[in-house]
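Let's practice the habit of predicting before peeking. Look at the sequence and jot down your guess about where helices and strands might fall. Then scroll down.
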Amino acid sequence: MKFTLCTFLILLSAQAFAQTTYKAIQPLGAIPKDSQISVKSVGTKSTFFNPNQTDSTTESGFKTVPNDSLYEVKSIKNKDTSADSTTLKGLATSGDLVLNKSSLNAADQSCVTAGTCTLTADVPVYQSSKFNFFDWFLNIFGLGDKPKSLVTPPTDIADPKASAAAATTAMVTNTNRTLTGQNAVCEDLPDSVKNDPTFKCGLQMALDSFKKNKASGKVTSDTFIFNDFADGEMTGKMYFFNSEGKVAQVLDKNPIPVSRGVGGFGAGTGSQKTPNGAIVTRRYEPPRAGNIKDGIELLGLESGNKDITGRGVLLHGWNPYTYTAGCLGVQGTFESGKLGYADEMGGRPLYLDQLKQGLLKDGGVMIYNFTPAKVREGLCRSRK
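Done guessing? Here is the structure:
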């Protein structure tokens, strides 16, 4: 009864958070020296916090960032036409890019007073976007049809906020270290998923694409990834399947959470959209050039997602309850070009790190993003 009451209180807290304008800030890289930028105060309408640091004294249970220490980047002008630069410019246009006042002052003190300047040094920046508290809480306790719990909530902590904070900072200890399939806990899909006609249709679409691309040699692995974004929400579910459409024993959890881009799904330079449909991973060979140093590079396998390499869409370490800038974000080490290596995401399970050393190491793994556009294609209706 104690656990039930605690869970109920946590869900109430999650709903309250959903009604508050909370924005999570995630390290992303830096605006390069000699760029012309314009900035403004973030104001007081939003509460900014670091989703990788807990603080029991705050309402959300996370460490907040003082509003007077942050500035929103309104625009960026420079000669850099790289995919990373385009991403930063897109985030500035959409109001999702912030920086610290102290960093700005170090580069050019006139920026704060004049609101515009030319940077005399690289300035670290952060992506700022809505945080999905409700899904985050559901995930912790394995409720509903959301991803299975990543960690077991402590039963000896009665306070809901303390319990949630402890759960998010706990490491998964029963992981498959060698990725050989031993000790995997998921052998089959739950009935709520297996009996869902939309999910079944999406999985069949993925299997069809897998067989086609495996036959052509574009896909080499016998295990593929199915990202269920059918509802279009920020947090999707990343499943691992084998060539027969059965659950693959890759990690100790299946599925795990995965985040999409702030622009939704689709294509287009600067769109911040996560691609629809089938894509394939390249061999993991870090580091790469750009703001995000340690991501898995991707290639599009469909006519509508051929642009993803050119616009820098990656699978990288991230907090999957926060939007990316068009990439796929999974819990794991996040390495930024200007903020240093091994910036671990708050002690969360480093699933992407495990995948980099196992399934994704040699490339050739198909990832199928089952998005609202794929649901609407009409193929599902004919297969029900």
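How did you do? Residues 17-130 form one domain.
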